[in-house]
Design a protein that fits this description.
This protein folds into 2 domains: 4-225 and 279-501, MFS general substrate transporter like domains (Growth Hormone, Chain: A, Up-down Bundle); 232-278. Helix 16 packs antiparallel against helix 17 (382-407). It starts with a helix and ends with a helix. By secondary structure, the chain is mostly helical. The longest helix is centred in the last third of the chain and has 40 residues, at 462-501. The chain has helices at residues 4-38, 46-49, 51-62, 64-74, 76-95, 111-115, 118-156, 163-190, 195-198, 200-214, 227-244, 251-272, 288-316, 323-334, 336-350, 353-371, 382-407, 414-448, 462-501. It contains 19 helices and no strands.
């Protein structure tokens, strides 16, 4: 364990790295309209554009189950520095979008020709795919930081002293989510959206320097790396996510990806039986406390990402706000998450873990239901109350779930458990946003078909245009209301594992 006098100081750069990596989870939420405009991606291709978010979450979560164990083998410090370096490499790649000649700017007068040309399609595809791929690389580095941090805290503190540090870990991650939307909107207000990623570089360098000089080395475990098992787990996560992305659009492909993903999982199950030290020990799931925490995290993550994405999109479309305005409105929710995370750590230490987590879930479900009733005339203080209530509820859940999982896991599985409990939340976020983007795109198309545009044939008078605009606004409202309802239902379902399985530590 770290000496008491060094604990807090040594963990400062660790928490800082989590904060800035988490920032990039949500930063795209408010700059997505700018990216779509710059890369000339149509609104009807929203499901493709959403892969700038989904791809990040996919990379983020795909490495989480294995990184805790990898840090056991190679050392926490080394893996943390290596991961931050990969995050910076991906940031450089995303910042270079359009600078490599993938998408040449075209004038307004050429737009009609361009939009009907093969080169236009290829340019869009290449540019958007480049962003998705480089964001994925970012996420691989960022995704390793949370399980490694959880493992560092587990090494540094006895079980009864982990509540507050775990709460701070969650608070830092959520604080990054707080800043992300606002930061993205602010930067794009004065600079190009690429600068959001360029600014990660100096910050990452400072974090690495702090880690090198302040964080002591842990003693690595003398074990061989389970590369085959790692590939099977990553493959399963990617395939299932790709399957979720087909929701509502391509049923045969959905079934193929999901089935393939479960085949990978089943293969890993039997493969792990033949290994002395599998990358993710199956035995940890025999513990009902650990299993309950992971199931709850799945529903929590899906509900959270749906809320984070829906609010700015609603502001930018139905409410006709800017990216900065969308970030400022979302801030009212996200600023309450780290506050709730810290208070949730204290409440978990003082009271039953179930009570804290259940109260958080009920708060989220209730507030999201209220959001599903929003109209174009929604304003303060009603909007702020709903957003603050949701954010505080999301924050309360973090510490009790994470601490319950880690305190009920055998010490020899701490690294793997840290990776899995971190991954489960982001698995929920990844599956949730992939399924929602695909289903939402299909739902949007179906709602558009219900618009009465027959009057437009008589000429686009002001009254006719106003009527069509009103119908489009109602379509958007209906879609976003459905999103909020889905998020609320997920929180209610999360009460089942919470009530039954999360107990006082």
């Amino acid at each position: 364990m770290l000496k008491r006098s060094y604990k807090t100081i040594a963990l400062i750069p660790v928490f800082a790295g989590i904060f800035f990596a988490a920032d990039d989870q949500t930063v795209v939420v408010t700059i997505l309209p700018e990216i779509m405009s710059d890369l000339m991606v149509e609104v009807t291709d929203l499901d493709r554009a959403m892969w700038t978010v989904t791809g990040y979450l996919l990379g983020y979560v795909s490495v989480m189950p294995i990184m805790g164990k990898i840090s056991d083998i190679y050392g926490r410090k080394f893996i943390y520095v290596a991961s931050m370096s990969v995050f910076m490499l991906g940031s450089i790649g995303t910042g270079l979008t359009n600078s490599l000649g993938f998408l040449e700017p075209h004038s307004y007068h050429d737009s009609a020709y361009i939009r009907n040309s093969t080169s236009y399609i290829l340019d869009i595809s290449t540019s958007l795919n480049w962003v998705i791929v480089t964001r994925f690389i970012q996420a691989i580095g960022a995704g390793a930081l949370i399980p490694v941090t959880v493992a560092i805290i587990t090494d540094s503190y006895p079980s009864k002293e982990r509540f507050i540090p775990m709460g701070i870990t969650g608070a830092c991650a959520e604080a990054g989510a707080v800043i992300g939307p606002l930061w993205g909107g602010l930067v794009t207000q004065f600079f190009s959206w690429q600068w959001v990623f360029w600014l990660n570089i100096p910050i990452g360098i400072l974090v690495i320097i702090g880690i090198i000089f302040l964080l002591p080395n842990n003693k690595p475990i003398n074990q061989k790396m389970d590369y085959a098992g790692s590939l099977l787990i990553i493959g399963a996560i990617c395939l299932i996510t790709l399957g979720c992305a087909q929701s509502g659009t391509n049923t045969p492909l959905l079934a193929t990806f999901i089935l393939s993903g479960f085949i990978f999982l089943l293969s890993y199950y039997f493969f792990s039986k033949t290994r002395n030290n599998p990358i993710l020990p199956i035995d940890i799931f025999k513990n009902t406390q650990f299993l309950a925490a992971n199931v709850l995290h799945l529903f929590y993550g899906a509900s959270l990402i749906i809320t984070l994405v829906t609010i700015p999109l609603m502001v930018n479309t139905v409410l006709s706000g800017t990216s900065l305005e969308g970030g400022l409105i979302l801030l009212r929710m996200t600023i309450a998450i780290p506050i709730g995370a810290i208070i949730g750590g204290w409440l978990s230490k003082t009271f039953d873990l179930r009570l804290t987590a259940c109260f958080g879930l009920i708060s989220c479900a209730t507030s999201l239901f209220f959001m599903s009733q929003w109209t174009v005339s929604i304003n303060d203080p009603t909007m702020s109350l709903h957003l603050l209530m949701a954010g505080f509820g999301f924050g309360l859940i973090i510490a009790p779930v994470t601490t319950s999982a880690m305190n009920n896991t055998n010490s020899k599985y701490q690294g793997a458990a840290a990776g899995m409990i971190s991954a489960s939340r982001f698995l929920g976020m990844t599956f949730g946003i992939a399924a929602l983007a695909a289903w939402g795109s299909q739902k949007f198309q179906n709602l558009l078909m219900g618009i009465d545009i027959s009057a437009a044939e008589l000429g686009m008078s002001g009254d006719v245009y106003s009527g069509i605009e009103s119908q489009l606004t109602q379509v958007g409202l209906t879609l976003f209301h459905n999103f909020f309802i889905v998020g609320s239902i997920l929180c209610i379902i999360g009460l089942i594992p919470c009530i039954r399985l999360v107990k006082k530590s």
